[in-house]
Specification:
By secondary structure, the protein is of the alpha/beta class. The chain folds into two domains: about 1-235, Alpha-Beta Complex (Spore Coat Polysaccharide Biosynthesis Protein SpsA, Chain A), CATH 3.90.550.10; about 240-330, 3 Solenoid (UDP N-Acetylglucosamine Acyltransferase, domain 1). About 20% of the residues lie in helices and about 30% in strands. Helix 2 links the parallel strand 4 (about 50-55) and strand 5 (about 75-80). The protein starts with a strand and ends in a 23-residue tail after the last strand.
Length: about 350
């Protein structure tokens, strides 16, 4: 069995961060979201992986390499434009051959992996198996309607009146029959070949399409709140450890990781939290559910429930919360007139300040 991982797309909901970086490489607990997916694929016993790339393909290649660090063999397949998930299957035909495969959206996060899905698919003799999860607001998702034996009857994208509360998760398993489906369908109103249309084609043509419910936690990390929530979930499971330097004036409580080369002086860190390598935390407070990347500096500041990417500095600011701070960003106290905010902000940014 093979895997096809989608690492293209434009990540418009995470701009401006995704103007210069792949959305699949945004870190959760200081590890890119994409890496969790690759590890889940490996843990399911799959070693041959094709990665679909788009405009950020060079960055994805640098991060993943040949896949050997994950125990995988990776083939890169460029997509000229985001023309739909079914189009990804279409252009990966030569890589996939006649093997069954997992289609995995690289910005999806599954805490318990996909081993159960793969095992169920291989033992069930299905032509397709769709991963589903129950959601409170199904009208905002692709929704599946099931038959009495768990078979897929109908799929509908963001229906006004959902037939169920079962949302489609961004992980699918397919037999080679799907290649006929992606060739048979036409582009949707938004000009893309939709994977839901391909699955519906399989259903309509009498092939065996089944469902599989998510056993654990799932999120699509395309929005800030979802990334912060994934960060929280992962941090609650980290094994604490101090490989860096913490002075006697500092207080560390809870699940806290201080990576090699990091320095903590005269500061309070309340876990769960991760402090990246070669980062300095000086006279500061780092609160729960915070990940700070490598080579950062936090001085005289307070931050909690946030993600800070590599090379950024925060100085003299309190209190930062529910924030995603990109790479090599400087956040500092404004000099001069009190209660004045000095901002230099790029396109598509979102800033919230106290009144």
């Amino acid at each position: 069995m093979k895997a096809l991982v989608l690492a293209g797309g434009r990540g418009t909901r995470l701009r401006p961060l995704t103007h210069t970086s792949a959305k699949q490489l945004v870190p959760v607990a200081n590890k890119p979201v994409l890496f969790y997916g690759l590890e889940a694929i490996r843990d399911a016993g799959i070693t041959e992986v094709g990665i679909i790339t788009g405009d950020t393909g060079a960055e994805v290649r640098r991060a993943v390499g040949d896949g050997s660090r994950f125990g995988l063999r990776v083939t890169y397949i460029p997509q000229e434009a985001p023309l739909g998930l079914a189009h990804c299957v279409l252009i990966a035909r030569s890589f996939l051959g006649e093997d069954p495969f997992v289609l995995y959206l690289g910005d999806n996060f599954l805490i318990d992996g996909i081993a159960g899905l793969v095992e169920s698919f291989l033992s069930g003799g299905h032509d397709a198996q769709i991963l589903l999860t129950r959601v409170a607001e199904p009208q905002y998702y692709g929704v599946a309607e099931l038959g009495p034996d768990g078979e897929i009857v109908r799929l509908e994208e963001k229906p006004e009146h959902p037939a169920s509360d079962l949302a489609i998760v961004g992980v699918y398993t397919f037999s080679p029959a799907v290649h006929d489906a992606v060739r048979a369908i036409s582009p949707s109103a938004r000009g893309e070949l939709e994977i839901t249309d391909a699955v519906q084609w399989l259903v309509d043509n009498g092939l065996r399409v089944h469902s599989h419910l998510v056993g654990g936690y799932w999120r699509d990390t395309g929005r800030l709140r979802d990334i912060l929530e994934c960060n929280r979930i992962v941090l609650e499971r980290v094994e604490p450890g101090v490989a860096g330097t913490v002075d006697q004036l500092s207080e560390i409580t809870g699940r806290v990781v201080v990576e090699a080369g990091a320095v903590v002086e005269n500061s309070v860190i309340r876990g769960p939290a991760v402090i990246g390598s070669d980062t300095k935390i000086i006279s500061s407070y780092v609160g729960p559910f915070t990940s700070i990347g490598s080579g950062c500096s936090v001085r005289g500041a307070e931050i909690e429930y946030s993600i800070v990417l590599d090379g950024s500095s925060i100085e003299g600011v309190s209190r930062i919360a529910h924030s995603l701070i990109g790479r090599n960003v400087e956040v500092s106290r404004a000099a001069g007139v009190s209660n004045t905010h000095e901002l230099m902000v790029g396109d598509h940014s979102r800033i919230q300040v106290s009144a």
